[in-house]
Write a structure and sequence with these properties.
This protein is an alpha/beta fold. The protein has a single domain (7-143), classed as 2-Layer Sandwich (Nucleotidyltransferase, domain 5). It contains 4 helices and 5 strands, in the order αβββαβαβα. Helix 1 packs across helix 2. It is globular, with a radius of gyration of 15 Å.
Length: 146
């Protein structure tokens, strides 16, 4: 699956999809030697029941050692991407999937309130683990390729 070249390609695909199609945006990251790899995905769930078209983008940055900073960067990338397509989504179901576990026993829960508040403040709908498939399954799948 090739990376999307431009957000306009994604916007055009969404415009041409049915109003029943759901749109999910998510981001996951992985540490790799001296780098942190971020994979941001946009999943267009065709008619919300007929498979999906996946758009993805990879960014490599200098290694981010702070789990808090890295998770907040994932949230920021997902929100930024969602905002770039929000005006073409229309009435379609639209969610930002966060790779955050609300259970306090998990490290990702340290940014739970901040992340959810940030997504809501942008007028978007946050979804957390275990339901955040765009981040926890799709983006995670691509990060494992590095």
């Amino acid at each position: 699956m090739p990376q999307f070249e431009s957000i306009e390609e994604v916007r055009e695909f969404i415009r041409n999809s049915s109003e029943e199609s759901a749109i999910y945006v998510g981001c996951d990251s992985r540490q790799l030697r001296e780098s942190t790899i971020f994979v941001t995905v946009i999943v267009v769930h065709i008619n919300s029941n007929h498979g999906a078209k996946i758009f993805w983008q990879v960014d490599r940055v200098k290694r981010i050692n702070s789990i808090r900073q890295r998770l907040l960067e994932e949230v920021d990338r997902a929100v930024y991407t969602a905002l770039m397509i929000a005006d073409v989504v229309g009435e379609r179901p639209f969610e930002v999937h966060l790779d955050i576990n609300p259970n306090p026993d998990h490290r990702s829960s340290v940014i739970l309130k901040e992340a959810v508040g940030y997504v809501l403040a942008q007028g978007l709908k946050p979804v957390l683990k275990p339901d955040a498939i765009a981040a926890t399954a799709v983006a995670d799948f691509f990060t494992e390729k590095f």
